[in-house]
Amino acid sequence: MDILKRSAIIFTVLLVVLILGTVGNMLIVGLTFVDALYMTVITITTVGFGLERPLNASGKIFTIFLIFGGVGTATYAVTSVVQFIVQGYFRDILGRRKMTNQISKLKDHYIICGFGRIGQNIIKELVKNKKKFVVVEKNPEIVTDVQEAGYLVVEGDATDDAILESTNIKEAKGLVAALDDDADNVFIALSARRLKATIFIIARANAEETEGKLLAAGADRVVSPSIIGGRRMAATLLKPAILDYLDYVTHSEELEYHLEELKVMPGSKIADVSIADSHIRKNTGALVLAIKRGEELNTNPSTDTVILAGDNLIVLGTGDQLKSLSNVVTN
């Protein structure tokens, strides 16, 4: 039985014993209400103080039964309280220590600052793609919700450098500043960029004028939910079929083919080789749709286009085909 339910039952029984003891002392022994309550309390707590008024035979028998019924109940109630406090304290300490240890071992993970609606939707996608992440949240009640969901979480203000450091940011791959306050997101971007120069930062902007400040603070990308939402609604209105197709390709779990972004690492077999000579399609089955090089995006690369180390390939393929190509670009 849950300790809270058990404690509630015990204290209910204890209250009943107090009521019955008080009423019994008033009716059988003839005490006033205060004296009867006092007598009941000192009896079940075994304090030992007594009243000058002697007990008659009926009073003595009643007190014997009160001792048997009340002392055990009071002792068990106190034990339950101590157990609840001690267990809760140590469970909290051990739980935090275990979570801290798990976070310290993370590599190439993502840091999600804020567990609001946007943060939760980001996490759903990360979970679906089996990515490692840690949440930063300062609301204790929300922290409890995150823990119950089974996610790693650091309680605290994400604008605090010490809190970001506790997420093992130096080993992290990316960070999302998804707080409601634009100023907080600016501070997070500044702190994250200072703590790790190469981390990929995405920041949320509620106001359009904040975008430039976030980029200046170190964010690689700035996303405005209102702008994105407006564009999506307009696209749904004007070109519903195209949007349905893109949604199906990028989000459907039933579709065999998936879009993926793969970075060509130095020393890869296809680095400094043209698309035609790399035989990507022939060897892996995946199709190169676009190549992103720095800030430049080639949306329709020809077969003569040379792939360079550091390029990000936008490719389409099945899970096995993408895995095969991933081995090629990272080898």
Number of helices: 13
CATH fold label of the largest domain: Rossmann fold
Helix content: 40-55%
Radius of gyration: 33 Å
Oligomer: single chain
CATH class of the largest domain: Alpha Beta
Q: What's the domain count?
A: 3
The CATH superfamily of the largest domain appears as NAD(P)-binding Rossmann-like Domain
Assess the beta-strand content as a share of residues: 15-25%
- Please tell me the CATH architecture of the largest domain by its name: 3-Layer(aba) Sandwich
Number of strands: 12
User: pLDDT under 50 segments (min length 5)?
Assistant: none
Record the strand order, biggest sheet.
3-2-1-4-5-6
Largest sheet: 6 strands, parallel
Written overview of the protein:
- The structure is a single chain.
- The mean pLDDT is 85.
- The protein has helices at residues 3-29, 33-44, 57-104, 117-128, 140-148, 161-165, 182-195, 211-217, 225-238, 240-251, 275-278, 280-284, 319-330; strands at residues 110-113, 133-137, 153-155, 174-177, 200-204, 221-223, 258-263, 273-274, 287-293, 296-298, 306-307, 312-317.
- The chain contains 13 helices and 12 strands.
- It is an alpha/beta fold.
- The protein has 3 domains: 3-101, Helix Hairpins, CATH 1.10.287; 106-223, Rossmann fold, CATH 3.40.50.720; 256-330, Alpha-Beta Plaits (2-Layer Sandwich).
- A 6-stranded parallel beta sheet has the order 3-2-1-4-5-6, with helices on both faces. A 4-stranded antiparallel beta sheet has the order 7-12-9-10, with helices on one face. The chain has a two-stranded antiparallel sheet with strand order 8-11.
- β1, α4 and β2 form a beta-alpha-beta unit.
- α1 runs antiparallel to α3 and α9 (225-238) crosses α10.
- Helices cover 55% and strands 15% of the residues.
